[in-house]
């Protein structure tokens, strides 16, 4: 069995706002958050965020019982060593507060955090251990120059820090691909050094370096010697039109699929608050996102960006409200 440590990832689905959080919002989050306070705030936050969603969905919910069960849950127990004094990582109390704040905003909307919103949670710890050191969690592992690292073990070897992947990219860094988040971190082109669109970057294939995303009116297509054509993500408020190969304004209605040389190409034409509806007509159309509780079949059809196990938008389900988990 080969394992990549994921104990810190478990906390992202449950982080919410602070203890005593009636009316908790971005203006009431406590900053900074002391390391010894974080887990208690996490347990209280879980019941805070989920409670209002359950009430809206019409499911019974006991906040006090939720807090107690979550504090005793296996996931909470697994996280505890991360916050011990001998844990080999530096803790950032401001990033912790930002992480809680982002979770609070998402919870109040009965949705999960976006990859961009999760970033402060990943910044909460900075590893101290060099590659080759024994470890209990990936967040203990320090990044080697130009790379990342994680805690790795097999059935025959103890957990140690190993180098893997690449460090976050910046303007001017060498690249051979583009990474575009769709909620799952999917990569649309390249297999090595991908420039992340969520950080405002794209790979300039002519020069082989990361550059800022093209803006409204700027060219956005790239052409390879093989004859392959790709289309960049554009800066906020714009999308790459395959017909003009330029960034044009996003739209709230109309086609989100176009024909290029008799081949259908999906675009990112739909503005915030809408999605590309591929279930009703061809070519696909931009349609308003569905509210919490609406019937759904795909994640991006929901304003919450979460189509739950009951086929409804939002994080609240009968199981989640009774067992205090997000499905």
Short summary:
The chain has 327 residues and is an alpha+beta fold. It contains 7 helices and 18 strands. The chain is 21% helix and 20% strand.
Explain what you see:
- The protein is an alpha+beta fold and 327 residues long.
- It has two domains: 3-167, no CATH class; 177-301, no CATH class.
- 21% of the residues lie in helices and 20% in strands.
- The chain has seven helices and 18 strands.
- The chain has helices spanning 9-12, 38-57, 63-72, 74-79, 93-108, 115-122, 318-323, and strands spanning 3-4, 89-91, 125-127, 148-153, 160-164, 177-179, 187-189, 194-196, 201-204, 209-212, 221-223, 229-231, 238-241, 246-249, 257-260, 263-266, 274-277, 285-288.
- The strands form eight sheets. Strands 1-4-5 form a three-stranded antiparallel β-sheet, with no helix packed on it.
- A hairpin with a 2-residue loop joins β15 (257-260) and β16.
- α2 (38-57) packs across α3, α2 (38-57) packs parallel to α5 and α5 (93-108) runs antiparallel to α6.
- The longest helix is centred in the N-terminal third of the chain and has 20 residues, at 38-57.
- It starts with a strand and ends with a helix.
Task: Provide keyphrases for this structure.
327 residues; alpha+beta; 2 domains; 3-stranded antiparallel β-sheet; 3-stranded mixed β-sheet; 7 helices; 21% helix; 20% strand; flat; disordered N terminus
User: DSSP strand (E) fraction?
Assistant: 15-25%
Q: From the helix content, strand content and strand pairing, which structural class follows?
A: alpha+beta
The run of helices and strands is: EHHHHEHHEEEEEEEEEEEEEEEEH
Mean pLDDT: 79
**Strand order within the widest beta sheet:** 1-4-5
The largest β sheet comes out as: 3 strands, antiparallel
Instruction: Compute the number of helices.
Output: 7
Number of domains: 2
Using DSSP, what is the number of strands?
Answer: 18
Helix content: 10-25%
Report how far apart the termini are. 26 Å
How big is the Rg?
22 Å
- Uncertain stretches of 5 or more adjacent residues: 1-29, 182-187
Shape: flat
């Amino acid at each position: 069995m080969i394992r990549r440590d994921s104990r810190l990832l478990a906390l992202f689905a449950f982080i919410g706002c602070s203890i005593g959080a009636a009316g908790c919002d971005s203006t009431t989050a406590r900053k900074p958050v002391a390391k010894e306070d974080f887990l208690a705030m996490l347990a209280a936050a879980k019941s805070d965020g989920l409670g209002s969603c359950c009430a809206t969905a019409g499911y019974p919910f006991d906040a006090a019982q939720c807090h107690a069960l979550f504090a005793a849950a296996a996931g909470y127990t697994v996280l505890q060593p991360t916050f011990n004094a001998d844990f080999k990582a530096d803790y950032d109390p401001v990033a912790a507060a930002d992480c809680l704040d982002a979770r609070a905003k998402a919870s109040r909307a009965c949705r999960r955090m976006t990859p961009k919103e999760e970033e402060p949670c990943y910044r909460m710890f900075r590893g101290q251990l060099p590659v080759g050191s024994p470890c209990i969690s990936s967040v203990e592992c320090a990044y080697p120059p130009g790379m990342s690292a994680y805690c790795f073990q097999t059935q025959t070897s103890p957990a140690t820090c190993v180098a893997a992947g690449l460090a976050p990219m910046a303007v001017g860094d060498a690249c051979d691909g583009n990474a575009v988040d769709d909620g799952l971190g999917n990569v649309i082109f390249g297999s090595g050094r991908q420039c992340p669109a969520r950080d405002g970057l794209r790979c300039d294939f002519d020069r082989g370096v990361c550059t800022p995303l093209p803006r409204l009116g700027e060219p956005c297509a790239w052409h390879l010697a093989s004859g392959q054509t790709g289309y960049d993500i554009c800066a906020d408020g714009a999308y790459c039109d395959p017909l003009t190969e330029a960034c044009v304004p996003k739209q709230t209605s109309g086609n989100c699929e176009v024909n290029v040389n008799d081949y259908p190409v999906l675009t990112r034409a739909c503005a915030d608050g809408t999605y590309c509806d591929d279930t009703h007509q061809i070519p696909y159309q931009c349609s308003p996102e569905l509210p919490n509780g609406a019937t759904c079949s795909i994640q991006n059809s929901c304003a919450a960006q979460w189509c739950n196990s009951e086929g409804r938008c939002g994080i609240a389900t009968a199981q989640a409200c009774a067992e205090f988990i997000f499905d």
